[in-house]
Amino acid sequence: MQAKKDILILGIGNYLMGDEGIGVHVAEQLLKENLPADVDVLDGGTGGFHLLEYFELYKTVILVDATLGDHPIGTIRLIKPRFAHDFPKAMSTHDIGLKDMVGALQLMDKMPIIHLFVVSIESLQQQGIELTPEVKAVVPELILRVRNLIEEIRSGVLEETIYGVL
Questions:
Q1: Does some domain include residue 49?
Q2: Is 47 helix (H, G, I), strand (E, B) or coil?
Q3: How many CB atoms lie within 10 A of CB 137?
Q4: Is residue 162 assigned to a domain?
Q5: Which letter, b or e, does each residue of 54-84 get, where b requires 16 or more Cβ atoms within 10 Å of its Cβ?
Q6: Nearest in space to 21 (alpha carbons), one of 38, 44, 42
Q7: Are 95 and 63 in contact, with CB atoms under 8 Å apart?
């Protein structure tokens, strides 16, 4: 069996649906940055079971996605889901695929450590490749938080606690 790679940053979302594509926008930005050699970045599109192999290949996966809900637009939350029910109830259009995939990984005993950054958006009905000003404004902070999490993981000081759904 092949040894697992260290860290994957996986941006999820539909690039053609405005804010719903926040994960893809962040992945594209991170691909342009100088990241450590043990960190890979992938535009995961709208998710689904075709991403299963990536979850099997990495020790740690950092997901970036959009979510609906009661939080103000542009709110960034970090969740550490361990089970399918730990994902926010109102994730974007592809949440069923991610929840099902986590369930499959658990059944196969191949579950990586997952950290999930979600950004609150207003609507899934938006069309176009541009982010709204409210969501676009939080991209630099989100990228900084992803980079800080990478450093915490790589340094070994990250506590193995469950963030839960905030």
A1: yes
A2: coil
A3: 12
A4: no
A5: bbebbebbbbbbbbbeebebbbbbebbbeeb
A6: 44
A7: no
Rg of the Cα atoms in the chain = 15
Domain that holds residue 43: 5-155
Q: Apex CA 16: angle with CA 104 and CA 32, to 5°?
A: 80
Q: How many domains does the chain have?
A: 1
Q: Kindly report, residue by residue over 81-124, the tens digit of the pLDDT.
A: 776 667 766 555 555 566 677 777 777 777 788 899 999 998 77
- CATH number for the domain harbouring residue 16: 3.40.50.1450
Q: Which two tokens stand for residue 27?
A: 């992945």
Residue 154 backbone dihedrals phi, psi, to 5 degrees: -65, -30
Question: 8 in helix, strand or coil?
Answer: strand
| pLDDT tens for each residue of 24-46 | 999 999 999 999 999 999 998 87
CA distance 21 to 119: 10
With contact defined as beta carbons under 8 Å apart, do 9 and 28 qualify?
Answer: no
Distance (Å, whole) CA 147 – CA 117 = 12
Residue 89 DSSP code: T
Using CA of residue 101, residue 106, residue 112, residue 113, what is the dihedral sign?
A: positive
Confidence at residue 89, expressed as pLDDT on a 0 to 100 scale = 62
Helix (H) / strand (E) containing 59: strand 58-67
